[in-house]
Amino acid sequence: MGAGFIGAEVASAARRRGLPTTVLEALPTPLVRSVGPDLGAALSSLHTRNGTVLRCGEAVAAVEGTDRVEGVRLTDGSVIGADLVVVGIGAVPRTDWLAGSGLLVDDGLVCDEFLRAGAPGVHAAGDVARWHNLLFDRSMRVEHWSAAAEQGARAARNAVSPEDLRPYSTVPYFWSDWYGSRIQFAGVATVDGVEIVSGDPAGDHFVALYREGDRLSGVLTLNGQRHVMKYRRLIAERTRFDEAVAFARTSAPERSATATS
Ligand SMILES: Cc1cc2nc3c(=O)[nH]c(=O)nc-3n(C[C@H](O)[C@H](O)[C@H](O)COP(=O)(O)OP(=O)(O)OC[C@H]3O[C@@H](n4cnc5c(N)ncnc54)[C@H](O)[C@@H]3O)c2cc1C
């Protein structure tokens, strides 16, 4: 259940063991929030190309079985037989215990750029922290190990050294391995435009650059390990989108220039 990164990694592992696998996704297109609609569809084609059945727009109403799971029932009443069900439908920050504390909770504990949560001596780090990331000038919450570790260290330093406060700014980064391919993403996937600067989204390798206004805001790669960190650096340096595309032209001769929106 769920065609996000958890569901996809589990499906990939199941297929590697030769097991018949179905991924059910409630939304019409997977991964819209994390990589945008076009490239979400491109990545999801890895499922069908590797023998996993992907059914989008199919919400699960119930898990069926007596002593053990026997299937899942969809909202249209149909039942898909299954002897193992993995639920990978996302997480919500656990903040109910903060109700009435006076701290601001809004999809996470709201913090400033120093990870201070609005009351003396209260800082936040990790999945629960919604903090102001100065690099993108917006409030964000990141569910990745690296951010949790870095935020923990920064929040602790700021807590013990209030005379030397330093903001926590980062270009969010994650990777995920599906069917022997490596997916890597850095930045934010708000899309004013996407340009494929290397490879082909229908194939086994591509590099896509995301534009927000006139700035490079994100990079998505499929089997593009040697590319992703250089673009992450360009994002951190607030590089203009056209400069990033020009950079791609000099460093990725195999590019195909495909632009959307
Ligand atoms: C299945 C899965 C796979 C993932 N894979 C990846 C991956 O490949 N790469 C990646 O970067 N990230 C991955 N993540 C995300 C990553 O696990 C989180 O970003 C990271 O664990 C966040 O660390 P954290 O310390 O904020 O929260 P957690 O690791 O969730 O730790 C929070 C702890 O606080 C405890 N707790 C909650 N409320 C209270 C309370 N009131 N009092 C005391 N304790 C409390 C919880 O029980 C928990 O032990 C994955 C997450 C999941 C669920």
Describe this structure as you would to a colleague.
The chain has 261 residues and is α+β, with helices and mostly antiparallel strands. The chain folds into three domains: 5-81, FAD/NAD(P)-binding domain, CATH 3.50.50; 96-164, FAD/NAD(P)-binding domain (3-Layer(bba) Sandwich); 173-260, 2-Layer Sandwich (Enolase-like, domain 1), CATH 3.30.390. It contains six helices and 14 strands. It has helices at residues 5-16, 32-35, 37-49, 145-160, 225-236, 241-251, and strands at residues 22-25, 53-56, 60-65, 69-74, 79-81, 109-110, 129-133, 138-140, 173-178, 181-187, 193-199, 206-212, 215-222, 258-260. The chain has a six-stranded antiparallel beta sheet. Strands 3-4-5 form a three-stranded antiparallel beta sheet, with no helix packed on it. A hairpin with a 4-residue loop joins strand 4 (69-74) and strand 5. It is flat, with a radius of gyration of 21 Å. The structure holds flavin-adenine dinucleotide. The site of flavin-adenine dinucleotide (FAD) has 13 residues, from helix 4. Flavin-adenine dinucleotide (FAD) binds at residues 6, 91, 94, 97, 126-128, 143-146, 148, 174.
